[in-house]
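Subject: Acetyltransferase (GNAT) family protein

B.,
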Amino acid sequence: MSFIEIIPFSPDLQPYFESINKAWVSRYFSLEPFDIDQLEHPEETILAKGGEIIFAKYGEEIIGTVALIPKGDGVWEMIKMGVSESFQGKGAGFLLGQRIIELAQIKGAKKLALYSNSKLEAALQLYRKLGFKQVSLECGSYGRCDVKMEFDF
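Prediction pasted inline below.
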């Protein structure tokens, strides 16, 4: 695959954040109310809280996205990572993950957490490749999650 560019959020990219994530969540699970709120209103639910949203762009096409939100005490969470199905396995997810780790470090993160599901094996392999380690899962607000991983800085 030729050059994939990582770009920051701008309001005109919100529909891509929404559509890419709704596609994969709906494919494997069902959308929960917090998903809809974050995807339809990312400026209020993610960016206004100090978070970040970035995108992978290939040519003129937006092919992937991921977000970062603060959780307190130096912990940040990587959320809403998705890559368009036709571009999966071509490196966009890895580039997005690398950049979101860099952004978390710039923001002073001591730890970066993510929640996933054991049936998303390709995603879990990607997270391990990025340096995330599986940890004990506490009861959380995500109904579909049965895996928690962390990246320590």
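The chain has five helices and seven strands.

T.
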